[in-house]
Amino acid sequence: MSLLSSTEFEARLRAVGAERYHNLHPFHRLLHGGKLNKTQVQAWALNRYIYQARIPVKDAIIVSRLPTADLRRVWRQRLEDHDGAKPGEGGLERWLKLTGGLGLDRAIVASEAQALPATIFAADAYVHFVRDRSLLEAVASSLTEMFAPTIIAERVDGMLKGYDFVSKDTLAYFGARMSQAPRDADFALGYCLENAKTREGQDACIAALTFKCNVLWAMLDALHHAYVEPAHVPPGAFKP
Question: Are 107 and 204 in contact, with CB atoms under 8 Å apart?
């Protein structure tokens, strides 16, 4: 197979999101449509924390693998975005404020003790992928950020309209992501377009993005199975 042009390559990547991004999942349709009860929304927030906590870990791995100071400086911004420059700042802290606004105990959420087993397996699989696959694939797996602004806008609007127990302060995490995600996606996309110099490399990027979409989809599969009727909550997982 011949090398794709930059335009064709980018179009293939974006097509992955159009088909597989998790805004299409039935659980998100229920979440954004105001169709879940408070317990189900709490379960989503508690389990999503697992993924949020893994993001700076995978970004630290990528920073350690980047070959130049210029590249590391750019990617290092993601660590500060999520971990903050000091205690009490950053995206992970804002997510804990989200779970607290939903009435969840901070220590329980942060302990990860009540998360679904499948959530932990999926989130850890993402970290292992970034650690074990090529640097190009690791960067490409982050390209779900290309599709984030759409789902964030839909989520905030839908949840504010659909749930009287949700406020703008509760959802403050998403405000920062509206500018951070496009910035991060533009850099990662540019890196892939420049460094995928063979068709095999391009296909590996497409497969990496597909894998990441599958990780996010699997997490929602687990939530739907556990908390949407008929519910099947596994032993030890969050219950009201």
Answer: no
For 141-194, what is each residue's pLDDT tens digit?
999 999 998 889 999 999 999 999 999 999 999 999 999 999 999 999 999 999
Query: Contacts from 223-227 at CB under 8 Å and sequence distance 24+?
Result: 223/27, 223/40, 223/43, 223/44, 223/47, 223/116, 223/119, 224/25, 224/26, 224/27, 226/43, 226/116, 227/39, 227/40, 227/43
Can you give the pTM of this predicted structure? 0.96
Q: How many residues does the chain have?
A: 240
Give yes or no for a contact between 151 and 23, defined as CB atoms under 8 angstroms apart.
yes
Q: Looking at the chain, list the stretches that DSSP marks H as alpha helix, in order from N- to C-terminal side.
A: 6-20, 26-32, 38-65, 69-83, 91-101, 106-111, 117-132, 135-140, 148-162, 173-195, 199-227
Compute the chain's Rg from CA coordinates: 18
